[in-house]
Structures are given as structure tokens and as C-alpha cells.
Amino acid sequence: MELRSDPITRSWVLVGDQEQNPMPPNDCLLCPGRAPELRMLLELPNPAAAQVRVIPHFHALYRIEGNAERRPDGIYDCMRSVGAHEIVIESRDHGQSLGLMSDDQIERVLQAYALRILDLKGDRRFKYITVFRNNGLLAGAEWDHPYSEIVATTFIPRRIHYELRSAREWYAQRERCVFCDILRQELKQARRIVDMEGDYLAFCPYASRVPFELWVMSRAHNPAFEKPHHDAKRYHLAVLLGRVLRRLQRISQPYHFVLHTSPNIIRQDPALDWLTVEEDFHWHIEILPIVAQQRKSYSIKEVYFNPLLPEQAAERLRQAKPAL
Ligand SMILES: [Zn+2]
Ligand SMILES: [Zn+2]
Ligand SMILES: [Zn+2]
Asked: Distance from the CA of 204 to the center of ligand 3, in angstroms?
């Protein structure tokens, strides 16, 4: 596989065959003892070690070895698909799900994300680390077992690149973080807020792309998820996330979950790229429910169409009981 850059949009596209390692059918490789030869990528202290394991992906989209070898191909750009692709096995219990875990268990999963992001950011080849979960088969999950994925890339993925660029422009004009501005307005209007806990807030964004889209953020400005403020309690985030996922579960089961944190700026020339990222960017979690009946017509690919007003979505989510 290789990465090719679209010269117009500057998006990177993975092209070529995915390497397929033979896998036993009808067998969950994420259950304890099923893949004993796998290298553990994270050593957590107990009791977290007894719950969360991180392993390389069985058919990784990115290879850890070597350099990207970015090169021209005529007027085009391409590079090797170098990076990391890992699986965070969130629990030993096959039938568990993130939203139904205890607050302590969810906190351990969040801790594993943070530790892996910190470790991968130490690798100077990687410009961005994405953490995501495909919840449910409709969302593209490969196993029923609760797991998330971590991908480290030698480029900044398209969506996050748009966000970083817009946040930088907003800051250049106003010297304010756009995400903090959004939070201020959401708190003031209180029409799209779904839930709060401690320093954390969950709301349906103003221009939600799909029904029941949810964002979870810290109220205090913070660019990097993996480096919480000394007084921020990740436990509160776990409590809020659990409640929000249980509310959502009453309405829609499959969803995509993605964590957007700051890019790996240690390798950037500060004069060139993300000079103000510490001030202008703010980590957040985006939860995008999968809408089965949404037809994927071309118009929907170009412009999102959401038939449900975010204010109504927030109201329904507030009323959905988050009971275990
Ligand atoms: Zn399993
Ligand atoms: Zn902010
Ligand atoms: Zn985002």
C-alpha cells in the first residue's frame, strides 16, 4: 500500500491492497488467550493491566518500520504508508461495551488512550495520532469484543487538517480559541447541551452532520487530551462519557467515535505550521451515530443533510435515561 496526495485538495489517500493475515473464522482474537503471541504495546499498572491491553493491529493499514520516503511522481506526491495501527482491547469481557462499563473502567480506557498518544508522539516521524472506535457492525466494527483503534500517521488527516487551519485563522483574527467560543455560546444558550460533569460538557453541535451527533469537551481550554490540566479529573470525563453513551444507546446503537487532539508539534518547524496551536486548538471527542436509512446519494456526500434539528436531538438525548 502507498499514500498518494490529491494535488488539488492536498488530501492523502491510501491506495493498494490491504495486507491480509489469515485469521481463524468465527473466533474472537481479542478475547484473553486467543492471540498469546502478540506483543503488548502498553504496560499499565494493575488493576488497569487486568482490563486494558494494547496490541498491534492484525492487518495494519500502516507499517511501523522505515521512513515515509516522501517523493515526487511527476507533479504528484506519494509516500510509503508508514505509521502505527494499534488495537486497544478495552475489556477482557467479550460481552462488555464501553457505555456499560463502570466509571473506573471507562477511565482506564481513557488513560490507555492518553499513554499511547504520549508514546507515539515521541516518534518524530508521526505528525498525527487518531483514536477512534467503530461501535457496532454497521459502524464497521470487526469484532463484537469492545475495542478501539489508534492510528499514527506521517501526515495530518483531512478533517483534522481543516479543523486546525480554521482554528488557527479564528485565533489570528480574534486571539480566541474557536472551541472556547463555541462552549461559551452553548452554555449561554443552553439549547444543545445534553449533559455535564465536573469540568466536562456534552452537546449536539450547531451544524450537526448527522442526527444525534455529540461532542464532548473540557470546559477549560486544553489543546492536548493526553495532557490534562493538573486539576482536571479524567474520572469526571469517564462519568460523562458513560452517561452520554448510555443515552445514545437508547436511540441509536452503532456510532463512530473519534478523539481529536493536537498534532505532534515537536517535529514541526514552529515558524511554518502550527505556531499558535497551544492557544487555538482544543481537544474534543466527536460521536457520530450511524444512520442506517440515510441514502448515500452524491448530494449527501458533497453537503451533509441532517433531517433532525440539533436542538431537538439534544432534547431527546437529555430525556433518554442513562441508567445502566
Ligand atoms: Zn472476544
Ligand atoms: Zn479552547
Ligand atoms: Zn474534530
From this structure: 13
Ligand having the closest approach to the CA of 260? 3
Cα-to-centroid distance, 188 and ligand 3 (Å) = 22
Question: So what's the architecture of 2-153 in CATH?
Answer: 2-Layer Sandwich (3.30)
Question: In angstroms, what is the span from residue 49 Cα to ligand 1's centroid?
Answer: 17
Instruction: Kindly give the distance from the C-alpha atom of residue 183 to the centroid of ligand 2, in angstroms, as a whole number.
Output: 8
d(CA 207, CA 58): 36
Instruction: Give 197-210 pLDDT, tens digit per residue.
Output: 999 999 999 999 99
Q: Topology of domain 177-319, per CATH? A: HIT family, subunit A (3.30.428)
Domains 2-153 and 177-319 are alike in CATH topology: yes
Ligand with minimal distance to 147 CA: 1
**pTM over cut 0.90:** yes
Structure confidence at residue 269 as a pLDDT band (50, 70, 90):
low
Domain ranges of the chain: 2-153, 177-319
Helices and strands in the chain, H and E counts: 7, 13
Q: Which of 181, 157, 177 is nearest to 168 (CA)?
A: 177
Q: How far apart are CA 51 and CA 96, in angstroms?
A: 11
